[in-house]
Amino acid sequence: MTVSGRPFIPVAKPLVGEEEKRAVLEVLESGQLAQGSRTAAFEEAFAAYLGVKHAIAVNSGTAALIVALQAHGVGPGDEVITTPFSFIASATSIIACGAKPVFVDIDPFDLNLDPEKAEAAITPDTKAIMPVHLFGHPARIDEFTALCEENGLALVEDACQAHGAEHLGRRVGSYGTGCFSFYPTKNMTTGEGGIITTNDDETAARCRIIRNHGQERRYLHEHFGLNWRMTDLAAAIGTVQLGHLEEWNEIRISNAEALAGLIRTAETPRVREGDRHVFHQFTIRVSHGRDRLQQALEEAGIGSAVHYPVPIHRQPIMQHLGHGDFSLPFAEAAAEAVLSLPVHPSLNPEDVEYIAATINRLAGVPA
C-alpha cells in the first residue's frame, strides 16, 4: 500500500524471516508438536536472558498472568492492586482467579502505576500488587519490591510489553514473578504465547503444575489447572526471535531517540534516569485534537494507535461488575491524550524523519 507515492508506514510490523520458517519446519518434521524439548530449551534461554532461575512457557500473556496469580494463591476474597491504564487483561486475569482488581491512579511522568497510591490502597484483603511496565518503560519497581516485602504481598510484574527493559541494569521480570507476552506486535513473538519468570523454586513448581491441568503426575490431578501449555512450534519461533531481541531493542531505542529529538509539537515519552525503555510503543501526548491528528496521519501514510482510549475502570464490563464507579484523573487524562507512533525496527531513517516532520506539521494546529 502506498500513499502519495510513499509506502504506508504501519504502526507495528512483526519481523518473521527464513530462520523462523526453518525452525517451524524442523518441528513439523520431528512430529513433536506440543510442549516438549523445544519449549524446555526456549524456557532455559529466556531465563538466562533475564538472569532468573526459572521460566515457564504458556500459550499467551494472559495465561501467564492468570497462572502467576494462581501460583501465589490469589483467589476469591482477595484483592490485587493494579493500574487502570493498560490492556484489559491486566484486570481480567485477576477476575479470572476470583479476586477483585483494585485500581489506583498512575504516575503522570511515565503513565505507570503510582507506588504511593498503591500503598494507600493496601487492605487486609490485599494479596498482591501487579504493576505494568507500560509501553516498555519500567514501573518504579524498586519501590514496589520494597512495598511488597514490607507488607507480605506477592509482586507480579506485568512485563508483557517490556522484553529487555531494565532498571539500573537489572531486567524487569526478575524482581517478582514476571509475566511476558509474545503476541505478534511485541518486541519479540512466538506467534502467540507467554512466559512466567521467577527466582522462587516453589512458585515455579506451582506454575508448571497449574499450566498442565493441575497434574504433578500424569492423570493424577491434585491441583486446579487448565491447559495453558505452549507448543513446540511457538517455542521454536521464540528461540529464533530471542536471538535477535537485543538488536531489535537497540533499533527501537535509536528510533525513539531520533523521533524525540525531531518532534517539537507534541510531548514525547519520558524516560526515568536509571531505566532502559525498550519502546514497545513510542507514545506521544497531544494537548488537543488527538483523534483529528490520527486521521490526518492515516491520510499522510502513517499508521498510529491509541493505547488506550478507555481506562480499564471505565470499561463497560468493569462498570457492570462494580469495579469502576470512581474517578482516576491521571489515567483518564492520559486516555484522552496518548497516541502511539511507529517505532519498530523496520523503519529506516527517512521514515523516522517523515513521521516527525508530519507530526510537526499537523500537531498543535487548531481545527
Task: Write the SSE topology.
Blueprint lengths: L1 E2 L2 E2 L10 H13 L6 H14 L3 E5 L2 H11 L7 E4 L6 H8 L3 E4 L11 H6 L5 E5 L10 H11 L2 E5 L7 E2 L2 E2 L5 E5 L12 E5 L2 H10 L4 E3 L2 E2 L10 H31 L12 E2 L5 E4 L4 H10 L16 H6 L7 H9 E4 L7 H14 L5
Parallel strand pairs: 4-5, 4-6, 6-7, 7-10
Antiparallel strand pairs: 1-2, 3-11, 8-9, 8-14, 10-11, 12-13, 15-16
Using brief descriptors, characterize the structure shown.
2 domains; alpha/beta; Aspartate Aminotransferase, domain 1; single chain; 367 residues; 16 strands
3D structure, described in words:
With 367 residues, this protein is of the alpha/beta class. It has 2 domains: 18-239, Type I PLP-dependent aspartate aminotransferase-like (Major domain) (Aspartate Aminotransferase, domain 2), CATH 3.40.640.10; 245-362, Aspartate Aminotransferase, domain 1, CATH 3.90.1150.10. Helices cover 39% and strands 15% of the residues. The strands form 5 sheets. Strands 3-11-10-7-6-4-5 form a 7-stranded mixed sheet, sandwiched between helices. Helix 1 (18-30) packs antiparallel against helix 8 (232-262) and helix 2 runs parallel beside helix 8 (232-262). The mean pLDDT is 96.
* CATH class categorisation of the largest domain: Alpha Beta
Broad shape: globular
What is the typical, i.e. mean, pLDDT? 96
pLDDT below 50 for ≥5 consecutive residues: which ranges?
Answer: none
Radius of gyration over all CA atoms, rounded:
21 Å
